[in-house]
Amino acid sequence: MENIAIVEKNGPNYSLLEVSGTINSYTYTEFQAKVYALIKQTNLVLDMSRVVNLSSSGLGVLMAAVDDGESLGHKLYIMKPSEVVRLAIESTGFSEMFTVIFALTEVI
Amino acid sequence: MKTQRCSIRLAPRLENLTALERFVAQCPFLDQTHRERATLVVTEFFDNIVTHSRPRTPFPVSFTLEKASAPRIVIRYSTMNFHKMIRGARSAHPHYEASSARYRGLGLLMCRNLSSSIVYKKGLLRSSIVIIL
User: Fold this and answer.
1) Of the residues A19, A42, A88, B74, which has the maximum number of CB atoms within 10 A of its CB?
2) Which of A3, A67, A91 sits opposite B110 (nearest CB)?
3) Are A55 and A28 in contact (CB under 8 A)?
4) What is the pTM of this model?
5) Mutate which of B20, B95, B102, B104 to disrupt the A interface (most A C-beta within 10 Å)?
6) Edge to edge, what strands does the sheet with A4-10 contain?
7) Interface residue A88 vs chain B (CB under 8 A)
8) Among partner residues A2, A25, A90, which is closest to B14 by beta-carbon distance?
9) A2-55 pLDDT, tens per residue?
10) Is the Cβ of A19 closer than 8 Å to some Cβ of chain B?
């Protein structure tokens, strides 16, 4: 799928996905599959500093992943959200669902 | 004085979201804040149109961005169920949908919260959505 790139890295108590490009209805399926698989296993950090669009489909995935993680004792972190990601999250009125961090040291 | 505007016409297919994002990114008169809002709003409406509208004719969806202190976006398209878009916009409520394993009903809520006004105009051949950011 074009226009989205996801790089996976692993830390001691988390997995990190560095996401760049656009998360919309055309591109979100790979993102959804990776997020849902990883949040079942461990804490998940999403580096969203290079995301240029986050649609409601992507946000819907994030919200479901937060729920899934909570039920398993895992946490989802949004790291360094780009301005458009921050705006998209705020525009839903569900900002309080998400834990925003600015460095991996906040997870370890 | 001539109004500055940018326009694009796209076939209603999800793969055209990329072209729509590029169109907003290249619009010369939007500042960064309005560009981000415009990107989110137009892609949400286009997604909704592609996913839910029943086209009356094979017309493409047209987008026009006009320069103003608060930029104006006009979306025009042919549809037989514009009333569903209006109803959805008024009653948008987020909910979890098990079949898609994600939350739905966020898109039109986002559009409402990212705009200062949205007007829905039902037309005989083409309906339009006028958004002031």
Assistant:
1) A88
2) A91
3) yes
4) 0.92
5) B102
6) A4-10, A14-23, A43-54, A76-79, A99-101
7) yes
8) A25
9) 589 999 999 999 999 999 999 999 999 999 999 999 999 999 999 999 999 999
10) no
